[in-house]
Structures are given as C-alpha cells and as structure tokens.
Amino acid sequence: MGKAGAKEAVSDYDVIVIGSGIGGLTSAALLAKSGKSVLVLEAHDRPGGYAHGFKRKKYHFDSGVHLISGCGEQGYCGGQVIYKTLQALELLDEIEFISINPFSQALFPGFSIGLPQGIGDFVETLSKQFPTETEGLKALTELCLQLSEEITIADELMAEVDLEQAQQLMPALFKYRKSTLAEVARQFIKDPKLLAVFASNWPYLGLPPSQVSFVYWSTMLIGYMVDGAYYCKGGFQQLANTLVKGLVRFGGQIQYKSAVEKIIIEHGQVAGVKVNSQKISASTVISNADFKQTVYQMVGEQYFPKRYLQRIKKMQHSLSIFAVYIATDLDLTAINIGHESFCYQDFDHDKNFSRTRQGDISWISITVPSLVDPDLAPQGQHLLMLTTLLPYQTAETWKQQKPIAMQTMLELAGQTIPNLEKHILFIEGGSPATMHRYTQNHQGSAYGWDVTPKQIGPARIQNQSPIKSLFFAGHWTSPGGGIYGVSVSGVQAVQKVLGVRKQSDLWGLYE
Ligand SMILES: Cc1cc2nc3c(=O)[nH]c(=O)nc-3n(C[C@H](O)[C@H](O)[C@H](O)COP(=O)(O)OP(=O)(O)OC[C@H]3O[C@@H](n4cnc5c(N)ncnc54)[C@H](O)[C@@H]3O)c2cc1C
Predict the structure, then answer these.
(1) Residues within 6 Å of ligand 1 by CB
(2) Domain residue limits, the chain
(3) Could you identify the atom of ligand 1 that is nearest to the CA of residue 481?
(4) What is the pTM of this model?
(5) Inter-residue contact 465 to 50 (CB < 8 Å)
C-alpha cells in the first residue's frame, strides 16, 4: 500500500486518469492507495464533473447532482460502494452525508405523495392511496430488492460458477435482464396512476418506464429506498474534494486546466498522453472523459477493432438537462415541499417523455438543498434548483432560448411554490450547452449511454478497452450513469488495472 505523504513529481506515471468526475476520482484515489503513482488531468479548474459546485454571491450551488445513494454503512460486504471507497481511503470522518426521507415527492394534478425510505413504509404509504393494489405493490418492490441483491453478488458469483449454476443462483436477473420497467410493473400493478407514482423518479435515469431497463431501475430504486438517499453536507463539491484529498494523501497528483489532447499508443498499447502540447508517459490510462471524444479524438479510430466501432455507432446516449439555479427569501419550510419533488402535468410518463424529446418543457423537478443544509445560503433564504431533461438540439442557439426555457420552468415551479417569481434574489440558467461546456460530455448528455436493456450488463461498453492498458471509468462504461453507477465503475476499473477479479478481494487489500 502507498504511504501517506506527497511523492516527488515525476513525468512517468503508472496511471494517468483523464477527467476528475466521481468515476475518475474513485479510480485514481484507490489506485494511489494501492501504491501506484497516479496523475489526474482535469480540463476544468476544479474536480467533480457534474458533481462540481459553484458559488455566486453568498450562495453555494450544486451544478448538477442533488441526491445519491451508496453512502451507507450497511450493505454487502460491510457497506455500500461510496462508503467502502471512503473507508479504504481513510476519509469517513471527513465528509457528512445527510439522510433524505422521504427521498422524493411525486406531484400530479390533484395528487401528491412523498416516497419514504424502507420497503415497509413505502408499500404502506402508497397502499393507503391505492388499497386494492397492496399485494402487487409489495411483490413488485420485493422483486426489485431481489434483483438488486442479485446484481450485487453477480460479479463475485460469475467468477466462481458456470452459467447453469449462475442461472439458478440469480433467477430474477436472468429472467428480467431484457425487460423494461413498464413491462414488469404492469404485471403487478393495474392502476395507471399508481404506475405513474411508482415510476415517478424516471428522470433520474433519463428514460421513461417503457424504455428504461428494469434491472438498472431496480438498483436505483432500492439504492434510495432501502440503502438510503443522501445529500452531501456543503454540496457535492465536497464529495469530489474529499476524493481528491484521498488521492493526494496517498501520493497521487491532480492538475487542473489540463485538457488532454491525445492518448499516445505505441506498439499497440498505451504509452502516455499529450496535454498542453507536452507528452507525459504512463503505462496505463483510464479515461473518465466523454467516450466518443476518447475513441475518435484522443486515441484515433484506427486503433480500435471494426466491430467495436460499429457497436459504438449503434449506441444511444441520454438526453441533457436544463437547470435553473435560484436563491429566494420565501420561507420554504412553511410550504409542503421536500428536498426533491417531481412535478408532472400528466400521469402518462411516455407522454411526458415524448414532449421532452420534442424540446417542450412540461414537467420539472424542484430541489431545495437548503432545507437539509441551511449553511448553503444566508439565514432566512433558500436555494432552489429546477431541472428538466432536454435534447441538446432543442435550440439552435441556447443563448436565445435560455431565458424562454427559464421562464417556462419558473412558471411550472410557481404552481408548487406560490409567489416564487416575486421573491427571487438570484437566478441563473444552465442549458445543455452549459452542461457540455463544463464536462465535455457529448451534447451535454447527463448520464452517458442510455440504460436500456440493450445497453446494460455485458452489452454496455466494458471498463477494459480493446487497447492494452486503456480503461474507462464513468457513466459511459459499465455499469451505468448516476453517482452510484460511476462510483461502481471507478471500482471496476481499479479491479481491471490491478487484475483483481472479485470486489471483496479488492476491499480486502485495503484493510
Ligand atoms: C444537471 C444534472 C443533475 C444530475 N443529478 C444527479 C443526481 O442528483 N444524482 C445522481 O446520482 N446523478 C445525477 N446526475 C448524473 C451524474 O451527475 C453523472 O452520471 C455523473 O456525475 C458522471 O460522472 P463521471 O465520472 O462519468 O464524470 P463527469 O461528471 O462526466 O465528468 C467528466 C470529467 O472529465 C473532464 N474531462 C472531459 N474531457 C477531458 C479532457 N480531454 N481532459 C481532461 N479532462 C476532461 C471534465 O471536465 C469532467 O470534469 C446528474 C447529471 C446532471 C447533468
């Protein structure tokens, strides 16, 4: 293991990580702890990617991320993935996660409900509104739990058993791996309103129930409902900063304003990168950057097998997000609003998504992080973040379209928070072009490749590339998008680099 304390600067590294999103930082810090010399190169002036924060006046805003799972002490092998990463890096005392319960609220015309943590409370709360659906709801939620548990052990099991045994030990995973949420949910729930409530968090994965993978959905739902939903005290920039602290503590380095131009390939394997017109050598490179940029611009398609390139051409990426960042002097504790509320005009999520795809803003989510972390704003004031999914191509020039989109979202927010427009102390918009500018993700994609049944599991771009010593971490690779997903991807990339087959063995190395 590496020892605490900075190493002398070198220009020849064991590992270079391109990008300091949470996936990249997870890999980098764990590899530094494993004794590797690690350099992270980040294009922006701070770490975090979509988890970065920014300050305006006295307000601390999150640019994107507002709710995560995976931070709890309970879980497979003694903790969940973010908890175990921070534990391995000896950082658990340096960060605080605030539990969010209910983890979200679903608001529809004439109907609203909070979704509480805990399967028992979740089923009971929804059953009160839909009493004839109790048994189906319970069975569906328990199936989600079973799937989520099978996914957690899949990696370990596949290392030990053959396919037939795997099918017996993970029956739900094999049965539902090709199903969408809608296909499965309809077998258990009949009332379309309950289906809409059950699936109300679909924007977290960027796809409506008829398209999103039931397996990926289940891990996300159980993550929030059973493992726990959290906000990071001080904003999610703190999560990124804490991972950087771990990286540096174990001798790793990070350079900001350093956009990598090229990944150098020599004799069919990685030899380093070109950044600011200089070559830095490394025997291993992990790209946390946009996937197409990595393949076509940084490496060059001539180095990849034809079949790999053909596959990339067929893959679908997620939509982007339009965000409005607001400070208000309204007393938001006085109205019935929680940390996160999804506000819809229609119970039909396919309609909601189809309008989104056409660039029409008809629903929003409202996040109020200052309700759980009042230090983000001066006393008596609150921060709001309004978000909606949108395609990058919605506007020819986002500069013109931005104020129009902001106004539409403000009007939608006003239906839940009366008089909001009269109580705005600060307002700023972030368009899909903004998302792209700060992270370089293709068309400001919020979650990387869509998590459809055809693009998850073995069908997703794997952490190991076809080029020797080139790996991927982040939402363009396995397992998928969201902070929980990219944290797992960072750990998986470390396993590939170190040649450690089972995740439990990796954690064992850090004890
Ligand atoms: C508005 C918004 C809200 C979201 N809310 C949530 C949420 O509440 N909960 C949740 O779990 N998920 C949320 N997501 C999704 C989640 O944020 C992402 O899936 C996740 O953060 C992606 O992490 P990543 O590791 O792939 O890196 P990214 O965050 O994509 O960061 C990539 C990094 O690489 C850097 N980079 C790119 N190219 C180069 C280069 N050539 N050289 C050097 N550096 C480079 C970028 O500057 C960036 O820092 C949200 C996304 C958005 C857009």
Answers:
(1) 18-24, 41-44, 49-51, 64-68, 259-260, 288-290, 321, 323, 387, 435, 439-441, 446-447, 474-475, 481-484, 486
(2) 12-98+233-315+461-509, 118-228, 317-439
(3) 19
(4) 0.96
(5) no
Using CA atoms, how far residue 98 sits from 67, 72, 215, 230, 237, in Å, is 10, 11, 27, 5, 15
Which tens digit of pLDDT belongs to each residue from 260-302?
Answer: 999 999 999 999 999 999 999 999 999 999 999 999 999 999 9
Instruction: Give nearest CA residue, ligand 1 atom 35.
Output: 19
pLDDT tens-digit profile of 85-142? 999 999 999 999 999 999 999 999 999 999 999 999 999 999 999 999 999 999 999 9
- Return the CATH number of the domain spanning residue range 317-439: 3.30.519
Nearest CA among 39, 81, 72, 53 for reference residue 373: 53
- Rounded CA separation 164/146 (Å): 19
Say if residues 438 and 44 touch (Cβ distance below 8 Å): yes
Residue nearest to atom 42 of ligand 1 (CA): 259
What is the rounded distance in angstroms from the CA atom of residue 155 to the CA atom of residue 122? Answer: 29
Give me the average pLDDT of each 10-residue run along the chain (511 residues): 43 95 98 98 98 97 97 75 96 97 97 96 98 98 95 85 91 97 98 98 98 97 94 98 98 98 96 95 98 98 97 97 98 93 98 97 98 97 98 92 97 97 98 97 98 96 98 98 97 97 93 91
Pick the residue whose CA is nearest to atom 7 on ligand 1.
Answer: 65
CATH topology of domain 12-98+233-315+461-509: FAD/NAD(P)-binding domain (3.50.50)
440 Cα–ligand 1 center, Å: 9
